[in-house]
Amino acid sequence: MRLTYNSEAAETAPMWNLFSPRRNRARRPTPARTDAWSPVTNNAIATIDHIGPTAVATLTVTALATTEGVGLLLELFDDVSHSGARSLVLDVQNLEFVDSACLGCLVQALNNAIAEGGRIALVNTEGAVQELLRATRLDRLFPICHDVPAALTAIERAT
Questions:
Q1: How large is the C-alpha radius of gyration of the chain?
Q2: Is the pTM of this model over 0.90?
Q3: Which pLDDT tens digit goes with each residue over 4-36?
Q4: What DSSP character marks residue 3?
Q5: Which of 79, 87, 72, 74 is nearest to 148 (CA)?
Q6: How far is it, in rounded angstroms, from Cα 99 to Cα 5?
Q7: Cα(90)–Cα(32) distance, rounded to whole angstroms?
Q8: Coil, strand, or helix at residue 137?
Q9: What domains can you pick out in the chain, each with its CATH number?
């Protein structure tokens, strides 16, 4: 199942919870995080939501490769860093291909996050991306979760 983000509808309608099993449900923060929730912002390759000190970025691209992909990832990580987020949940539900240069960029971002007291968790890894993470053993380095709430819990435990 692929979820899409309509920026025009977002300006006129309440935010949608892209991570809810029920579609079109208004986005509501969890009770423990009510004062820390902020609305979605857009990046060149992702939509970014903030829940407390953690950013949740949902990739909107299907492939990340070569220096262009690395540049786009670096821009995403810079946007997350400048937003004040310490940790990142990266939802890769739309990603079908990623090359080694972009994986290296992701590992460097994890090292930077750990140095600042944060973490990076991956969500919705499927198909070729999941197999690549297993083959490179990066599934041992990154918490890989099935949904965003589980990733937020994994990040809270790790930090």
A1: 15
A2: no
A3: 444 444 444 343 333 333 333 343 343 344 345
A4: -
A5: 87
A6: 25
A7: 21
A8: coil
A9: 38-158 (3.30.750.24)
